[in-house]
């Protein structure tokens, strides 16, 4: 599986590094890659049920969100692919002194440890982009699989807001990148 950063600027050094790494890895392992086609996945019932809004979005809503997101300097979007087929999405956004993470995987990939690995990879990307900041996830309380995946990736529950559980991974829990060592 590949994860590709979605960027209005095109291919980045991280993209090439990821592509080189991907060519060495098993094709069935999820990878992050920049890309832009997440609308159809976003409206799948298996994804909609875990969103805070709990509803599908229109193409106009998605286009507006996507265009705004790509303009944000403090945001990174990724497409998760398996053998060239979209299989999920990862969104990282710096908000003040934290990075907010949102990730989803389509059902064939769940329960195999891919989410936990991608969450850890996302934390490393956040550190490279913004330095040692806490990473925050907002997870619906009945999304047991996500709660377990984030817990296994070093996140701890720090509060709740209605039916949303807030989990954080402190900056000190994040692995140091080679450049930071």
If you had to describe this structure to a student in words, what would you say it looks like?
The chain is an alpha+beta fold. It has one domain: Aminopeptidase, CATH 3.40.630.30. Helices cover 33% and strands 30% of the residues. The chain has six helices and eight strands. It has helices spanning 13-24, 39-42, 45-48, 59-71, 114-130, 144-152, and strands at residues 2-6, 31-33, 75-82, 85-95, 98-105, 134-140, 156-161, 164-169. Strands 1, 2, 3, 4, 5, 6, 7 and 8 form an eight-stranded mixed beta sheet that branches. A hairpin with a 2-residue loop joins β3 and β4. The radius of gyration is 15 Å and the shape is globular. The chain starts with a strand and ends in a 12-residue tail after the last strand. Residues 6-25 and 177-181 have low confidence and may be disordered.
Number of spatially distinct domains:
1
Which class do the helix and strand fractions yield?
Answer: alpha+beta
Q: Tell me, what is the CATH class?
A: Alpha Beta
Shape call: globular
Gyration radius, in Å: 15 Å
Low-confidence residue ranges: 6-25, 177-181
Order of helices and strands: EHEHHHEEEHEHEE
- Helix content percent band: 25-40%
- Find the count of extended strands (DSSP E, 2+ residues): 8
What is the fourth-level CATH superfamily?
Gcn5-related N-acetyltransferase (GNAT)
Largest sheet: 8 strands, mixed
- Measured distance between first and last alpha carbons: 28 Å
Q: Mind telling me which CATH architecture this is? A: 3-Layer(aba) Sandwich
Q: Classify the oligomer.
A: single chain
């Amino acid at each position: 599986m590949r994860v590709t950063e979605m960027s209005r600027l095109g291919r980045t050094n991280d993209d090439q590094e990821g592509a080189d790494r991907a060519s060495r890895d098993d094709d069935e392992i999820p990878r992050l890659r920049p890309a832009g086609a997440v609308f159809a996945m976003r409206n799948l019932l298996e994804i909609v049920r875990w969103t805070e809004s709990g509803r599908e979005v229109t193409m106009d809503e998605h286009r507006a969100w996507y265009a705004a997101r790509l303009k944000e300097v403090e945001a990174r979007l990724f497409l998760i692919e398996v053998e060239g087929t979209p299989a999920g999405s990862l969104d990282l956004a710096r908000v003040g002194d934290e990075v907010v993470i949102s990730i989803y995987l389509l059902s064939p990939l769940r329960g195999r440890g891919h989410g936990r690995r991608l969450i850890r990879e996302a934390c490393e990307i956040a550190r490279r982009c913004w330095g040692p900041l806490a990473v925050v996830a907002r997870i619906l309380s009945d999304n047991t699989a996500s709660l377990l995946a984030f817990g296994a990736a070093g996140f701890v529950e720090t509060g709740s807001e209605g039916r949303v559980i807030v989990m954080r991974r402190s900056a000190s829990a994040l692995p140091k990148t080679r450049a930071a060592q």
